[in-house]
Structure formats: C-alpha cells, structure tokens
Specification:
The protein has helices at 53-60, 87-93, 101-104, 111-122, 127-140, 145-148, 158-170, 191-204, 216-222, 240-245, 250-257, and strands at residues 2-16, 23-37, 42-46, 68-73, 76-80, 94-97, 176-180, 208-213, 225-230, 233-239. The longest helix has 14 residues, at 127-140. By secondary structure, it is of the alpha/beta class. Strands 6-7-8-3-9-10 form a 6-stranded mixed β-sheet, with helices on both faces. A 4-stranded antiparallel β-sheet has the order 2-1-4-5, covered by helices on one side.
C-alpha cells in the first residue's frame, strides 16, 4: 500500500498582538490523518468556517510552514521535519486549485500563458512539448485549445475558468491535487460539472484529490475518505460512507443535521448562549 496522505501531529500556531498581551491562535491541533491506497482517491476535509481546513490545505501546499509535525504525500515528506524537496520537485508532486478562479489569473494576461508557463517552468518541457501538453490538459477538462488561446479572464465564465485551473494543475502530472473550496465561487447550476470532473480524473487519469469543502452533500458524493474538522482538530475520520451514514462524533452529527432534505425544511442553527 502507498501512503497517499499522512499528517503526523501537525500543528500550526499563529501569534496575535504585540510583545505584551500577545496571544496564540491554534489553527491546527495535532492533526493526524492517514490514507493508504494502491489506487487514486478523493479525500474530503469538511467543516465550518474557521475549522482549520484551509490552514491544513495551505500547510500541505507549503504556503504556511507548520509549527510542528510533518506531512507526507505519496511517500514524500512535503511539509515539516524532513521536507527537503525543491519547489520544482514539490510542484511536480502536488498542485493546487484555489477557491476563486477569477483571482487565479491576471485579467491583463491571456489565461493560456499560465498553462504554458507551468509546462515550461514546472514540468521542464520544450516549446513543442508544452504546446501538446496544454492542448491535452484542456481536452481532459472538456475545453478546446483553440477556444482558449489568447483570451482573457473577462471572456470566460467562472466555471470555465475553474476548468482551466484544473487543466493547469494537470500539466505537471501531479500525484495529488489540493482543491480548496473549488466550487464555492461558481454558479450553483455549474458546480456539479467540476465535481464530476474530479471523479473522472480520479478514475481515468489516476489523480488523487484533497477536496476542502463545507458542503457535506458533495463530499458524500465524491469522496472515498472524509476528515471532519472543528477548531483545528480532526474530530472524525474514515471511509466516506461510514462517516456519513454512522457518524460517531457529535459535531459530525450536527453538520449532517444541518443539510436540507426533501422531507424537512432547513432551519438555521440556533446560536449557542454565551
């Protein structure tokens, strides 16, 4: 079995305030997740805003350094103690997809320029190889290279831009793609296009995904494993069907109870008294 993802006592502490009266904010508290698999998987990390799921994504993407602990992706230490890979080596193993596709590309630069740049600088391709890789990646996400060439962000919908972001992530042929709330900024009618794309890329292209979301419905639909986070801790983790159908932690049950169903109208959770 291959270690797809493993975090060992991963902690991230931020300090707020000056020398006098400074306080610590524990964004991650002893996060331990282990996924072993011989086939590609989708791992969902779910929780409310402030639960620590985005901090976890940033730590795995080397955008934040952990205060202690380490993270392993496909048998490679990528963060914390023992992480020695160069930036290029790391980006060949792990690629990001961010929340807002309109912020992923400058409006003053053609979007395909970013794809060529990834092919040349990250994957080390020559011009001919880069041209073929960009066309192939766009085709993988259902877009035509000729339709994309030379165009700017204003000429695309949010859903199209997010598919271009996925294509960009595919070019270095990474083992793991970390997608942080990838459909939250997309029109609701188009979100399942991206979700189904992730499933297809897992099954047909052999890519694993870490899917960061607050949406338990899509997490249940797409995921092989689910980690539930609350206040920086993983309070429940396991196979998706098991966690969702038989939750063991009260916080997981609370999240599941908040999902609207056809039998009950959703009502906002009552505030907890101070």
């Amino acid at each position: 079995m291959t270690i797809v993802l493993k975090t060992e006592e991963l902690n991230k502490v931020y300090r707020s305030g000056g020398i006098v009266g400074a306080r610590q904010i524990h964004a991650l508290r002893d996060v331990n997740i282990t996924v072993d698999s011989d086939k590609p998987v989708v791992i969902a990390v779910v929780g409310e805003s402030g639960s620590g799921k985005t901090t976890l994504a940033k730590t795995l993407l080397r955008l934040e350094a952990p205060t202690s602990g380490r993270a392993i992706v496909y048998d490679n230490v990528v963060a914390g103690t023992g992480a020695t890979q160069s930036k290029r080596e790391f980006l060949g193993l792990v690629q990001p997809i961010f929340q807002n596709p309109f912020e992923a590309f400058s409006r003053y630069r053609p979007v395909d320029a970013y794809l060529y740049e990834t092919a040349r600088r990250v994957a080390g391709m020559d011009k001919t190889q880069a041209e073929a890789a960009v066309a192939d990646a766009l085709d993988s996400v259902g877009l035509d290279h000729g339709h994309i060439r030379g165009k700017y962000t204003a000429q695309f919908s949010g859903g199209e831009l997010q598919r271009i972001s996925v294509a960009r992530a595919l070019i270095p042929q990474p083992k793991l793609i970390i997608a942080d709330e990838p459909v939250s900024m997309i029109d609701a009618s188009r979100r399942m296009i991206i979700i189904n794309l992730f499933k297809r890329l897992r099954d047909e292209a052999g890519r694993s995904f870490l899917y960061i979301t607050h949406d338990l419905a899509t997490a249940y639909y797409i995921s092989d494993f689910v980690a539930v986070m609350n206040k920086g801790q993983v309070v429940e983790f396991g196979p998706a069907r098991q966690v969702m159908s038989d939750p063991q932690h009260s916080y997981t049950r609370l999240l599941l109870d908040s999902i609207p169903t056809i039998r009950s109208r959703w009502r906002p959770r009552a505030p907890v008294a101070a």
